[in-house]
Amino acid sequence: MKFVLFKKNENKVDRSNRILPQHVGIIMDGNGRWAKKRGMPRQAGHQAGASNFRKITRYCNSIGIKNLTVYAFSTENWRRPKDEVDALMNLFYDYLVEALADFREENIRTVFIGDVTAFDPKLQKLMKEAQDLSSDKTGMRLNIAMNYGGRSEMIKAIKEISAGVAEGSIKESDITPELVSAHLYTAGQPDPDLIIRPSGEYRTSNFLLWQSAYSEYIFMDDILWPDFSTENLEEALDEYSRRNRRFGGV
Ligand code: IPE
Ligand code: IPE
Ligand code: MG
């Protein structure tokens, strides 16, 4: 028996008249396997993945997605061999230098989510510059999740809230889902309506755990992140518009 999590649905969707998710999450997975298939080092896959990230990000903004969160580096990715982590850090550095020049013209507000204090100070400085330079942009808000983990994000919220309780600024009865959401990196943003993961892995890998309580997941087989195309994104948006969201109701 074959379990099919995302089956290409041939029922056509009118793309001009489709409900778009307000917030899309993407787990950019499969770079290593993409490189391996080509007999290239894993780093080459990350390079190709970074370039695809730019294409897809721009495209999302151009079609009117208001919030996009991409998973670039998890709190668990430090477990990889040192040479791979080093290569990723160099790539982030190069990306940020280029993005500072290149993304200037784009109407995209970039925010880094995750514990960025773990990164090299030079990288942190570039992140801050990229964030500050785009802070007045009115287009899509792009969250780049770097050293991000849903569990450590929740621990951050728990610590902030318990400190508030201890000093008396928060009462126990004030602790509601809204308050918790307000202490996450995505405070003020709608929860992701749609989360896409290519590469054939069917798990969340610690991505937006609290926020994804009612997200629609689309796990795409047969496509690795560097090959994920604008048409694949459109297919995911078509599929999203076919979903019947009930939020516990009927
Ligand atoms: C995703 O691709 C990029 C990061 C996690 C940084 P992978 O490197 O996980 O690629 P696979 O899953 O090994 O193919
Ligand atoms: C999730 O992918 C993290 C990112 C894409 C940044 P991983 O490749 O790290 O996830 P696992 O290890 O397969 O769960
Ligand atoms: Mg992976």
Descriptive notes:
The protein is of the alpha/beta class and 250 residues long. The chain has 7 helices and 6 strands, in the order E-H-H-E-H-E-H-E-H-H-E-E-H. It has a 6-stranded parallel sheet with strand order 3-4-2-1-5-6, sandwiched between helices. Helix 4 links the parallel strand 3 and strand 4 (140-148). Helix 1 crosses helix 2 (42-62), helix 2 runs parallel beside helix 3 (82-102) and helix 3 (82-102) packs parallel to helix 4 (121-133). The mean pLDDT is 95. Residues 27-29, 71-74, 77, 201, 203, 205 line the site of one 3-methylbut-3-enyl trihydrogen diphosphate.
Structural domain tally: 1
Q: Give the CATH topology.
A: Undecaprenyl pyrophosphate synthetase
Q: Level of helix content?
A: 25-40%
Number of strands: 6
The largest β sheet comes out as: 6 strands, parallel
Coarse shape: globular
Give the integer mean of the pLDDT values: 95
Proper CATH architecture: 3-Layer(aba) Sandwich
Gist?
With 250 residues, the protein is α/β, with parallel strands linked by helices. It has helices at residues 31-37, 42-62, 82-102, 121-133, 150-167, 177-182, 230-242; strands at 23-27, 67-74, 108-113, 140-148, 194-197, 216-219. The protein has a six-stranded parallel beta sheet, sandwiched between helices.
